[in-house]
Design brief:
Layout (H helix, E strand, L loop, with lengths): L1 E5 L4 H9 L5 E5 L12 H8 L3 E4 L13 H22 L3 E6 L22 H16 L3 E6 L2 E2 L6 H9 L4 E5 L3 E2 L2 E2 H17 L8 E4 L6 E2 H14 L6 E5 L19 H7 L6 H14 L5
Parallel strand pairs: 1-2, 1-3, 3-4, 4-5, 5-10, 6-9, 7-12
Antiparallel strand pairs: 8-11
Helix pairs in contact: 1-6, 2-3, 3-4, 5-7, 7-9
Amino acid sequence: MRIVVTGQAGQVARSLVERAPVGVTVIPLARPILDLENLASIVPAILANGPDVVVNAAAYTAVDLAESQEEAALLVNGEAPGEVARAARALGVPVIHISTDYVFDGTLERPYREDDPVGPISAYGRSKLAGEQAVIAATNDHAILRTAWVYSPFGKNFVRTMLRLAETRPEIDVVADQAGSPTNALDIADAILAVANNLSARPDDRALRGIFHMGAQGEAVWADVAEAIFTERAAAGHPSVNVKRIATTDYPTPAKRPSNSRLDSGRLAAIHGVTLPHWRESLSACVQRLLTTDRPE
């Protein structure tokens, strides 16, 4: 199987390259060959590589900056995914599109299901919802995977930031009133590979297509995640770090965050047979790896 993935330097693309088993070739594409800000570059770049599955993992992820650059976010997150999906349709292959919990307003008291009404409260969320709609309009052969709170050993993310701050601070303020499921991009990659296999093996199975939620098992608030990171760090012989639990209102940002980012991933398990590990398990492995083999950026 040949899988083209957009976003060569991103967490998901790098995780796919690492997790790909023997017999699966992952081809990451990025600028200048494929430039999501240059829509005309997208289809030719994908067609030239002749993939069996296309994964759109690239995105404009600067959530706060998107508030003042919504047009740029809409181009990359809203319009470009439609071009990626059109390339997949031209090849007659499925497209897997990575989306986000930010398409919801975060006000539900339970984890979000796929059929819950969307209602983004930020420019980033609006751009990601536009991307979902563009993919759906471009091809029926799609699986949209919504995830949340992504981290990994790669790039910029909450885990790496906490480890970096812990090197110089004995106490760190962390928001304690936003709930979600921290999801390791390496687990996301495993899930994508499983879904890709299913889509390729059963091209006429409509049940495998559509929107699915894909989050780690369990739930937490950001302060819980930080405490888990620092517990792992202390166990490895580093000085302890205290977490000061604060409210979202104590840490104002340009973009509003959903207070509830929990996703019900039951449909993905029932239809694709994919269940991600518990967040604590995957977080522990990531922190240990960063402390022993990598240096936090």
